[in-house]
């Protein structure tokens, strides 16, 4: 199963200057719990936003750069089709960004895991608008802001109708 996982604001912002625009420790924990042990597909800029490869995950990096080098254990491909072809067919695979990779994959994934951050922020990268006629909300869990989280947020799980 191919699943998108993302954190977006109310105005579908993902980030600015190749960085997230909020710090939500519980969302990081959820991301780690869901993606650990799985293949993760991402664009080059998303990969480069990490200080190092994420532990216990197989990284597939999409880039048009012919001579791009990544750390050992990471796979480099030139398009989404080739990225998907590298993944096991009987396991959940996560598309983790960025904006362009989400746009390319939104119509072929079976599930979307969104953390909706209840704020609107200035950004340069956005998540595609979901056509709710094509997606069914199957899980929703609200988290109020607290001393570790500057914003309220809600976990939302959608499956293709």
From TrEMBL:
Transmembrane segments: none annotated. Pathway: Cofactor biosynthesis; tetrahydrofolate biosynthesis; 5,6,7,8-tetrahydrofolate from 7,8-dihydrofolate: step 1/1. The keyword Oxidoreductase applies. It holds the Pfam family DHFR_1. GO terms for molecular function: dihydrofolate reductase activity. Residues 1-160 form the DHFR domain. Signal peptide: none annotated. InterPro entries: DHFR, DHFR-like_dom_sf, DHFR_dom. It is an enzyme of class 1 (oxidoreductase). Keywords: NADP, One-carbon metabolism, Oxidoreductase. It catalyses: (6S)-5,6,7,8-tetrahydrofolate + NADP(+) = 7,8-dihydrofolate + NADPH + H(+). Its EC number is 1.5.1.3. Belongs to the dihydrofolate reductase family. Key enzyme in folate metabolism. Catalyzes an essential reaction for de novo glycine and purine synthesis, and for DNA precursor synthesis. PANTHER family: DIHYDROFOLATE REDUCTASE. This is Dihydrofolate reductase.
């Amino acid at each position: 199963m191919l699943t998108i996982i993302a954190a977006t604001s109310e105005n579908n912002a993902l980030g600015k200057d190749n960085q997230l625009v909020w710090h939500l420790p519980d969302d990081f924990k959820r991301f780690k719990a869901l993606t650990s042990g799985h293949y993760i597909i991402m664009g080059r800029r998303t990969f480069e936003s990490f200080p190092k490869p994420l532990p216990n995950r197989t990284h597939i990096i999409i880039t048009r750069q012919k001579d791009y080098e990544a750390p050992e254990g990471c796979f480099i491909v030139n398009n989404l089709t080739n990225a998907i072809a590298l993944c096991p067919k009987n396991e959940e695979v996560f598309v983790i960004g960025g904006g362009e990779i989400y746009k390319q994959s939104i119509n072929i994934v079976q599930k979307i895991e969104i953390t909706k951050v209840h704020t609107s922020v200035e950004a340069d990268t956005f998540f595609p608008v979901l056509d709710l006629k094509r997606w069914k909300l199957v899980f929703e869990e609200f988290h109020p802001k607290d001393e570790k989280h500057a914003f309220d947020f809600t976990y939302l799980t959608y499956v293709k109708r």
